[in-house]
Structure formats: structure tokens, C-alpha cells
Design brief:
The complex is a heterodimer of chains A (180) and B (364). Chain A has 2 helices and 7 strands. The longest helix of chain A has 46 residues. Chain A starts with a helix and ends with a strand. With 364 residues, chain B is an alpha+beta fold. Chain B has 3 domains: 105 residues, Sandwich (Immunoglobulin-like); 82 residues, Immunoglobulin-like; 96 residues, Immunoglobulin-like. The longest helix of chain B has 56 residues. Classes of the chains: A alpha+beta (180), B alpha+beta (364). At the A-B interface, helix 2, strand 1 and strand 2 of A face helix 1 and strand 3 of B.
Chain lengths: 180, 364
């Protein structure tokens, strides 16, 4: 190929390159890519944000429920193998009792078993300012001893009926010393 | 050149716009939400703190008594000496004896519309006049009542008079007399129950004592007022005894548990009465002092004993009848020896051995 032909060819190529993609198309492509990346980031951020706010909201709800939970054991009476526990909800939220742990004074507390407790009136909910009696049976070996009675309760708003022990760390635990 | 720069800036501007949109539509609402949630939590914490603070500020003075002028009904007095109003929610009266016999019915809880005058809940303002709640429960003699008062904020007040003794009518410190009861000759190992019953105030109403070898004779004290009482004593195995007591005419009582094995409490000492040296066939006296340090009058048999064949003229055994408590008596033995030597004498009175005296009998 002669030199003149080669120069002509290169000029043609240059012209082709210059006129191959218009500035508008390239701008559209760039904007599209920017928008795409932007929407992806926005989607991730939104998902993370919603998830975080939901989780945070749930945790705050539990913490608020705990702050509003308060319980008082007014009296305990043991008749035969039955323990009558008189409970008064002095908190600002309805409660559900999920465990009653009774053990001898001075001994280590056994692991509590979580199950929804029913009051003597057949209900499971201790409403605000309500006063109810809970009856639970104890082992005969405990009778005649000074006992520690621990009641575990959870705010009804965070109570899980399928897992009564769930959220117990956000519940309220009150104890009562029963002198033999 | 100018056009090229302008086109490149479009995507930058769009990116900036998207960033700002993300910031304002996602991050800022998230922060606002968190702040709002925190505010709600802080409000709940504040509310709880206020509740706890106000609960700690409640200050009631509560007393309970049995109104002797009003059919022996139990009454509870409350005075708000604090700085905040208090709502009295419930009053408890727990009859310990009734609990034992009838179960849960021994508990009387007074709240709204439950026969308490004035009705509950009751608002008690600071330094308001003392309010007397009439529970309309008649205190039964010998029954013990636990009383407590619960406020709406969750404080429980127990009057210093609780447990209240039925038929008591006031503070234990108001008893006029101490009734001393002495119980003797209890069987060691047996647990005895003492129950004092009367129609006038007294305390305690029951006592339990397990007798041991060293505590078979005891004295106990009951705080009483003047009146008639009956003291019941039983060993829990069927044996029982009772004693009517009139206070103050009869302040000290002795009750015999009929334990036939009476171990005397005696102090026995002996000495020899002689002038100069003792020679064979000399008659001299051995003196024994016997003191009854027990609680009752007893008959004592005293025997002079020796480690040799001395001649005890009137016999070794002597009988003392009716030796009263804390009284001492002296008895003598006339003795003589036929052969010289050194001899020991001692006396055994109802199993109690005296000191040993040594007598030396010599030829000239």
C-alpha cells in the first residue's frame, strides 16, 4: 500500500470515529448508568433503612414496655401444696405471668420454666391496676420452710404466645420472701 | 470543548440529586424516626422514674387496734404525714387461726365496696386528719391478725401493732401483770404445749417447750391483765392438765406433770463432832446437813456409809419427812469403833452423795 493511500485510510478512520457516537447518546448512556447506580444505592439504602428502623422500633417498644411494667406481690399464702399469690399490677401496661419460681431461702434458684399462667378467675391477663390471685402447686418438701417466690411477667404487647419465655429479658421479675 | 464539559456535568448533577434525594427521603426520616423513638423511650423512663419517686415519697403512719368499745372490731388508723396525696387501695386483715382451719377464707381483703367504712379506695391528703377504717371484723380471743394497708402506687404499710392479738385491746406494753407459771417434773424429751385462755387481754397465748434433763423444771411468764384465765398444758400425746388462774390474786402457779421419777435436788454435807482424839469404843457424832434446793417439799432417806465396820448405834438409815423447798435440816448419827484405824464416812441422801470425812481412831 502506498503512503498516500495509507494517509487517506487513516483520515477516513478518524472521521468515522468522530462521527460514530453522538454527544447526546453518550450523555444519555452516562445519565442512565448514573441513574441505575443511583437507584440501586437508593434501593439498598431504603431497604437497610426500613429494616433498621423496624428493628430499632421493636427494641424500643420492648424497652418502653419494660419501663411501663411493674408488679407487686401483696401477699402469699400456702395451704396444703398450693401457693396463693396475690398480684397487683402497679405498672402502666397489662401483664402476663409466664413463670413462678419457688425455692428454699438460701438455695440457688432453679431455672424457671416458662408457660403462660392462668389466674384464679380463668384469665391470663393482669390489666393495669388490677389485683388477681394466682395459684400454683409446690413440692411437699418445700412446705414448712422459708421460701423465695419469684414471679416473671411480660408486658402483653411483647408477649409471644408461641414462646412464653421470649422477651423475658424485657419483662419484670418480682420476688417475695415467705417466712415459715 | 464547552459542549463536552457541559455534557459530562449532567451525570454529576444527577448523582448529586440522587444523593440528596436519598439523604432527604431515607436517612433524614430514619434519623427522625430514631429520635422520635428515643423521645418515646425517654418519656417512658421519665414516667417510670416519676412513679418510683412519688412512690418513695409516700409516708403514712398506720396503726391497728381492737376497739373494745365497738364490739371488739378491728380498726385501722391512717395518717398521711408525707407531702403528697395517697390513695389507699386495699386493707388486709389475715386471721392466722382461721387460715389454718378454713383455708383461704381467713383472708379478708377490703377494697371497693367490701364492707369497710369509709369505703375504699380512699384519698388521703397530706396532713389530713387521722382516718379510721372500720373493718367490721370482730377480733376473736386468742386469734392473731396480720394487718396491712396497700396504696395505689404500690406501697405496703404494716402497722406496728400487727400481728394483732384478738381479745387484746391494745399494745402488749399495757399489760398490768406478769403471770409466772412454774412447771416441774416434765419428762425429758417431751414437747409440752401451754395455752393461756382468758376473757381479758394477755400475751403470748401459747408457748411450746421441749423438756430436757436440764430444763425439766421451768418458769414462764405471761403478760396479763386482771381477770380469770385457764392455762392448758398438754404433751401432745393425750396427756393434759389445766389450771384456773385468777389474776392478780393468783400470780404464781405450780403445775405437777405427775412424773413419778422425782430426782431430788439436795445439798448434803457431813462433819464429825468430837472433842480431842478418838479412841476405840468412844462414842462420837457425825452430823449431816441436808438442804432441799428443789421446788417442792420432799421426803428424804439419808444413809450413813463407811468403809469399815463401825458401830452405828441407832442404825445407818434415817428418814426425814416433809423437807420443804429451800429448807435445811440437820441429822446426827452416834457411832463408835472397836478397833483403831483410819476410816472414811459419807452420807447418801436420795442418791446424792455428801463429802467424805476421815476419822482417825487411835489407842492411847
Amino acid at each position: 500500500m502506498s503512503l498516500s493511500k495509507l494517509i487517506k485510510r487513516k483520515r477516513k478512520d478518524k472521521i468515522f470515529l468522530k462521527i460514530g457516537i453522538s454527544p447526546i447518546v453518550s450523555t444519555i448512556i452516562l445519565v442512565s448508568i448514573t441513574l441505575l447506580i443511583g437507584f440501586i444505592i437508593m434501593g439498598f439504602t431504603m431497604g437497610w433503612s426500613l429494616n433498621s428502623s423496624r428493628e430499632y422500633g421493636l427494641e424500643i417498644n420492648k424497652a418502653i414496655a419494660q419501663q411501663k411494667s411493674n408488679l407487686l406481690i401483696e401477699h402469699v399464702q400456702i395451704i396444703n401444696n398450693n401457693v396463693y399469690i396475690y398480684l397487683y399490677n402497679i405498672g402502666k401496661i397489662p401483664l402476663r405471668v409466664v413463670s413462678v419460681n419457688i425455692f428454699k431461702l438460701g438455695e440457688t434458684e432453679p431455672s424457671p420454666k416458662y408457660e403462660l399462667k392462668t389466674f384464679i378467675d380463668g384469665s391470663t391477663l393482669l390489666d393495669i391496676s388490677e389485683f388477681k390471685i394466682l395459684v400454683t402447686s409446690i413440692d411437699s418438701s418445700l412446705i414448712g420452710n422459708s421460701l423465695v417466690i419469684k414471679v416473671y411477667a411480660i408486658a402483653s404487647t411483647i408477649f409471644d404466645p408461641f414462646n412464653p419465655g421470649k422477651n423475658i429479658e424485657w419483662g419484670v421479675i418480682v420476688d417475695y420472701l415467705y417466712n415459715a | 470543548m464547552h459542549k463536552k464539559r457541559s455534557h459530562k456535568a449532567v451525570s454529576n448533577i444527577i448523582a448529586a440529586i440522587i444523593t440528596i434525594v436519598i439523604l432527604f427521603t431515607i436517612i433524614v426520616p430514619l434519623l427522625l424516626y430514631i429520635q422520635n423513638a428515643n423521645a418515646l423511650y425517654n418519656f417512658a423512663v421519665l414516667e417510670r422514674r416519676n412513679l418510683d419517686y412519688y412512690r418513695s415519697q409516700e409516708d403514712l403512719e398506720v396503726h391497728a387496734y381492737e376497739d373494745l368499745k365497738d364490739n371488739n372490731t378491728i380498726k385501722v388508723e391512717a395518717y398521711n404525714k408525707g407531702d403528697i396525696s395517697v390513695i389507699i387501695k386495699r386493707i388486709w386483715v389475715i386471721d392466722r387461726k382461721d387460715v389454718n382451719t378454713k383455708g383461704i377464707s381467713g383472708i379478708y381483703i377490703f377494697e371497693y365496696n367490701k364492707n369497710c367504712t369509709p369505703d375504699l379506695p380512699y384519698l388521703l391528703n397530706p396532713r389530713q386528719e387521722v382516718v379510721t377504717f372500720n373493718t367490721n371484723i370482730k377480733a376473736i380471743v386468742g386469734h392473731v391478725y396480720d394487718i396491712k394497708l396497700v396504696t395505689e402506687r404500690g406501697n405496703i404499710y404494716i402497722p406496728k401493732e400487727s400481728p394483732l392479738l384478738g381479745g387484746h385491746g391494745g399494745n402488749p406494753a399495757t399489760y398490768a401483770y406478769s403471770l409466772i407459771v412454774t412447771i416441774v417434773n416434765m419428762h425429758p424429751g417431751t414437747t409440752y404445749n401451754f395455752t393461756l385462755v382468758g376473757n381479758v387481754p394477755y400475751s403470748p397465748y401459747t408457748l411450746i417447750h421441749k423438756a430436757t434433763a436440764s430444763t425439766r423444771d421451768i418458769s414462764m411468764s405471761f403478760g396479763v391483765n386482771a381477770g380469770e384465765y385457764i392455762l392448758y398444758l398438754s404433751d401432745g400425746k393425750g396427756w393434759n392438765i389445766q389450771q384456773n388462774i385468777l389474776v392478780p390474786q393468783t400470780l404464781a402457779v405450780v403445775m405437777d406433770c405427775e412424773n413419778s421419777t422425782i430426782i431430788s435436788s439436795l445439798e448434803v454435807t457431813i462433819s464429825v463432832q468430837s472433842r480431842g482424839k478418838i479412841k476405840p469404843n468412844d462414842i462420837f457424832k457425825i452430823q449431816a446437813s441436808i438442804k432441799n434446793i428443789g421446788y417442792e417439799t420432799i421426803n428424804v432417806t439419808a444413809i450413813l456409809q463407811t468403809n469399815s465396820s463401825w458401830n452405828i448405834i441407832q442404825g445407818a438409815e434415817q428418814y426425814i419427812e416433809g423437807l420443804e423447798s429451800m429448807k435445811e435440816t440437820t441429822i446426827y448419827w452416834d457411832v463408835n469403833a472397836t478397833t483403831p484405824g483410819t476410816y472414811d464416812f459419807w452420807v447418801i441422801a436420795d442418791g446424792v452423795k455428801s463429802n467424805v470425812v476421815t476419822v482417825e481412831c487411835r489407842e492411847k
